[in-house]
Specification:
Elements lengths: L23 H6 L13 H18 L2 E5 L16 E7 L5 H18 L3 E5 L16 E10 L17 H4 E2 L6 H11 L10 E5 L5 E5 L6 H15 L3 E3 L5 E5 L1 E14 L2 E9 L4 E2 L2 E3 L6 H13 L1 E18 L2 E15 L8 E7 L1 H7 L3 H18 L1
Parallel strand pairs: 5-6, 10-15
Antiparallel strand pairs: 1-2, 2-4, 3-4, 6-7, 7-9, 8-9, 10-11, 10-13, 11-12, 11-16, 14-15
Helix pairs in contact: 2-3, 3-6, 5-6, 8-9
Length: about 375
């Protein structure tokens, strides 16, 4: 399995339900919240979560449900839990628990990106009150609380104690940097009773084996969560199910470009390009040998639009997505302003160029992540103008 067409994919706002993209930032922000405000989820929050849940269910064969305004299963150390995720699936699925952990953590991280609090729950809830959400032949695995947190804990608060990289792996001393970064992401993974009963072994020529080290309750849920964190930390790849499953890291690609902005007495506009494939985005392209990121961005803008520019590298945003199976691409976006040249579209790749005010540009761009980068660029320029 792989998240490359789910978590990292640049969702088209016109064709695919927009969902928050989980990454290292969300892994670092996520902590377990046990106290919640009575404030209900907004319609937008529910809709976004439901679309992501539906996507995960279709990919996995699971039956994950979002239950709202139903506090019945929770008492004791959990306060004001009114919304929760129920993780179920076919009882005969030998990878059911691992799938619940892997896909469930995707939803948990997406909720974190939305500013919601969450908490995985294995045993301290009334299971009988959740059985009505199961279909015939399904088994209840676990649940997760979700909502607006009442906790005073900062998202920057230190995580609970964790195993060291040495305890989580073997062959790490001379390992490539991506393997160490993936293990650091595993250190952030929640687990039942904070056991972290997982282990990752770097094999010759690059594959990684992931295994559980105990047979305690929810150990396979923990493995699924840890595999997702490892995959995110490694910047994408593909896992086999099961203890002992093999991870193959995705091929890594890199492009650079810029959000080109011009200002005159009539106002400010952003340059968008419509690719021959039909989507609207910003000028960008692959890094060539010997180029710096800024040099690539300058060259690509010139080739695609005919414009020379001044690159502002103080603004640097990364969009990560999968252009095809087995490949992960990082796109580095800077800010730029035009300084000269003759504007024209590169015939081989570009169908149309256009300058648009911010409100129109943010509506036109095809991918949610591009809109988010544009919003950050506009916010920065507004602050400069104060």
């Amino acid at each position: 399995m792989s998240i490359t067409d789910e978590k990292f994919f640049r969702f088209s706002r016109h064709k695919t339900p927009p969902a928050p993209i989980s990454n290292k930032k969300e892994m670092k922000k996520r902590i377990s919240h046990r106290r919640y405000l009575p404030q209900p989820l907004s319609d937008t929050e529910r809709d976004t979560l439901e679309k992501l849940i539906d996507h995960c269910n279709r990919r996995s064969g699971l039956h994950i449900s979002l239950i709202c305004n139903r506090p019945e299963p929770f008492t004791g150390h959990l306060t004001n839990v009114r919304n929760y995720l129920v993780f179920t699936g076919q009882a005969g699925d030998v990878h059911l628990e691992e799938k619940c952990g892997y896909y469930g953590e995707q939803i948990i991280l997406a909720a974190t990106a939305m500013g919601l609090g969450t908490c995985w729950i294995g045993g301290t809830y009334d299971k009988n009150s959740c059985l009505s959400h199961l279909s015939k032949g399904e088994r209840l695995v676990c649940v997760a609380a979700l909502g607006h947190s009442a906790s005073t804990s900062s998202p920057h608060s230190p995580h609970r104690s964790t195993k060291s990289i040495r305890e989580l792996s073997v062959n790490h001393e001379d390992a490539p940097a991506w393997f160490t970064e993936a293990l650091a992401a595993v250190q952030l993974a929640p687990s039942s009773m904070n056991r972290q009963g997982v282990f990752f072994e770097l094999l010759p020529n690059g594959p990684v084996r992931g295994t559980v080290t105990d047979s305690e309750a929810f150990s396979m849920v923990d493995l699924g969560i840890a595999k997702l964190h490892f995959e995110l930390g490694a910047n994408g790849g593909d896992w086999d199910w099961g203890s002992g499953g093999i991870f193959r890291r995705a091929i890594q690609e890199k492009s650079c470009g810029a959000i080109v902005r011009r200002t005159d007495p009539s106002g400010t506009e952003y340059l968008l390009i419509r690719h021959n494939g039909g989507h609207w985005s910003f000028p960008k392209g692959h890094v060539e040998a010997g180029e710096s990121e800024e040099q690539t961005a300058y060259r690509e803008i010139l080739e695609e639009t005919g414009l020379t520019t001044e690159i502002d590298s103080s603004f640097r945003q990364i969009v990560t997505y999968s252009p095809k199976n087995g490949v992960m691409k990082d796109v580095i976006f800077f800010l730029a302003r035009p300084t000269g040249g003759t504007e024209h579209a590169q015939e081989e790749e570009i169908a149309q160029l256009g300058w648009f005010p911010y409100a129109e540009a943010v509506r036109i761009v095809t991918f949610t992540t591009d809109a988010e980068v544009l919003e950050l660029a506009e916010e920065l320029e507004r602050k400069k103008g104060l």
